[in-house]
Description:
heterodimer; A: two-stranded antiparallel sheet; B: 3 helices
Amino acid sequence: MIDPVPPALVFVAGALLVPFFKGNLKRAYLLALPVISFINLVSFSKGVHWTLPFLDYELVLARVDGLSLIFGYIFHLISFIAIIYALHVEDDLQHVAGLVYAGSAVGVVFSGDLFTFFVFWEMLTVASIFLIWTRRTRAAAGAGFRYLLVHSAGGLCLLAGIVLHVNQTGSISFDFIGLGGPGSYLIFLGFGLNCAWPVLHPWLTDAYPEATITGTIFLSAFTTKAAVYALARAFPGTGALIWIGAAMTCFPIFYAVIENDLRRVLAYSLINQVGFMVCGIGIGTHLAINGAVAHAFNDILFKALLFMAMGAVMYRTGKINGTDLGGLYRTMPLTCIFCMVGAASISAFPLFSGFVSKSMVMEAAAEGHMRIVWFMLLFASAGVFHHAGIKIPYFAFFSHDSGLRPREAPTHMLTAMGLTAALCIFIGSFPGYLYGLLPYPVEYVPYTAAHVVSQTQLLFFSALAFTLLLLSGIYPAEMRCVNLDADWFYRKGGRLFLFVMDRTFNGLNSVCDRYLAVGFARALGRFSQDAVARLSVYALASLWALVGVSGTRLEVRKRKVYENVRKGTLPVGLGAAMAAVFIMLLFLLSR
Amino acid sequence: MKDDNASNKHGPESGEVSAAPDKADDHGRYLFDNPRNVKRLLICFYVSLGILLLVDLLVHKHPNFGWEKWPEFYAVFGFVACVALVVAAKYILRPLVKRSEDYYD
Lengths: 591, 105
């Protein structure tokens, strides 16, 4: 058997060949790539492979252990699903970007040194941005540029951190870092930006809903989860993460309740779910890390499922705002059912995947006696059901009848959604298979009578609250509007910057133009014409006065000489005479 | 100038819109067009809530925190949390952050 190649290689190199295939062959090729890459991955034994010398350091392209493997598996699985979902797309750029993006994510989780890690980390940004730009709308272009700028800043922060860290420790290996020197704080912040920490998050809610229908499936899976992996690798047990994670679970749900764009609602709930993972990594016990990783695995699936369902709605109707949709269950029943499976999974209903992973993080918080954090997580659990679990399916498929009667989603989209839905139910019903992949041994038992009853109570009574609020008319109506978020600072701040720069530098420009380029040059030109003519008149006038010319004749001669010198039309003899006079004057004056 | 883009902000990449010309045509054809079905669903829902409240009293709990032993703790928390969430989002957050759709344009 041939030796396996570096895990990211199949995706990245394979992506570049996509444009050479056409039609069904291309579809087959696209579907084959994740399968080949997966076979390549499983033929690695655990340990460190593909080490390359680089300057004085050693690059590690394939560090295969429990933590990297489970992320590797889910990244392959979701790539396969996202490719099925995107089979109708003719635009090669989207396919190439999606595959390179998947390859970069795989590269991130298997790189064993900070240098390789950083290269793949930046490739994530570069590849993903094309999934936004290829939507080819003005909004997508703007969101893409903001995404690029924010991630460039984050990438530079990370790079600075890595340089400081390597300088301090003398090693480029990517292992536990922990908060210590300034370098580690910069790395922490760089990870945090990709993880969409509060205040650093708006790139996500800004850009993901503007991406292409199929691109969003890739986007929802990779960037944030690769950052979760990086945090789990380098900062497990870092106390700050507990509070950052708890804040992430809580604040987006308020936004999600009032947001109209249903894909933006999902983007907010994505932050909320990543919050559970970040919190688990912060707690840092084996149970908590297992919970965080398991939840990352499940979240990739059910969040993709929800984005796929909303994407199918958008594909068929061209609309995504809650105000424009409603009543689609009539003609899109399968999409509706898959969406509800995703909703049940994200809400952690018993027998659905969220139930077996989210509770691990909560249990870990309880074991650590973190009361406030536990309450925040419980609040977020109820809240996520409220916005992602009920709001998404309700406003798209039920609610008022929008009058739209679109056809059911195309077969390949239904296949992708069906496969994901089946996985969500399978993992929720038989969690042992997922638990077997986790980095630490699992003793946690999700299905106890008390847990099932308490969780079902929590969700059903949240649903009761929704029902009563809706029936009483208190539930906030969907509105066409923009809700301000932390991106206000750089969107409006950017404009302020532009305004200030415009006033300062363009002001300086126009002042220079007026007084130097135009004013001074004109004065100089006038001076060099006028001064010579006047000088000539004075010189000649004194000469004429000597020979006795006076009165009007003198005036006429003076004017004539003045005009002639100014226009350069002096008779040759007179010119020579004047030159002689000048030379004499000069001779006299220089003595 | 970019009106076509603005109105197509979420424009279709493909797909066909087939708005039913007359909604009355399919009245009663679909599951929830019949108000009785909605009513049945709601009744099922309320009954299951009641069952859950009863089951909670019978289940043996092994709580991490004292308050988890309180009867119906999760039911009350779920309800109160969601009402608080919606009220806060509607009456506090929305007035603070809501702007017109072309705010950034």
